[in-house]
Design goal:
The protein is of the alpha+beta class. The protein has four helices and twelve strands.
Amino acid sequence: MTKWRATIALAALAAGACHGAPREGAEAPARPAAAAHSCADDGDRLPLTGLCTGRAVNYLAMDASASPPAPDGCSWQVMETQMPDGVLLYRGLKCEAGETKLEFAGGAGRGELRLVSSAYLGKIDEPPAYVLVYPVEGDARQGVTARARQAIADPAEAARCSARPARGQGWPRDALVVDGAGGATQTGPRSACGDLGVNDELAAFWRVSQGHGWYFQMGQADMEIDPGSFTLMTKQPDGSWGAM
C-alpha cells in the first residue's frame, strides 16, 4: 500500500511542479572524491563531507521531537547532497526497496532538489522536484510572502496573500504556508496563492533557514525526508565542516 501511495504522490508532483524549472544542464558542482577510510564505530563516512554517518546527526539543526516517525520497516539516516554554497545534510528514509536521495539542479537564484531515488520505489527515471530553493534573508514571513507574490501574475491577487504558520501533521514547528485572508479558518483541501502558495494536494509548505527558503511539495504519501533536518554545511578554515 505504501508503494502504491508513493507512486500516486510522485505522479501528482510531476503534474503540479512549478513553471520555470532549472535547465537540465544547470547541475550542482562536481562532487569531491569519497573519503578513503571508514569510521571505527559509526559505520561509513559520508562521501562529500567525510563525516561519520553515525555522528553526522549531531550536526543537524533540528528539533527531534517535531520530526515525523519513520514508517514500519524503514529508518531515518543522514544523507547529503552538493549545493552551490556548501553541502546539505538531511535525514532521508532507508527501506527495503531503496533509500531516499536528492540531487540539486539550478543556481543560486532559484534551484530545486529532485527526488532521484525513492525509499519505496528505488531509482526514479524522471525525478520530480521535491523541494524548491530560493534565497530568503531577514524575516521569514516577509521573505516567503515576497517570494510567493512574485510568482502570482495578478497584482490584486498577490496583495491578498501572506505567509502564516502551517499546521500540517508531522511538519516542522516553523513551517509556513502562503494563503489568502481567512484561509486558516477554512476547512477541506485547499489551493490558493499561486504556484508557491498553500496546496493541500502536494502537502506544500515553506521553511526558512540559513538564508534559504525551502518550498517542500512532497505529496500525500509518507514523507521520504525529514524537512526539519535540513542543515547546510561549509568547510571551515581549519578544514573541518560546520553549519553555515
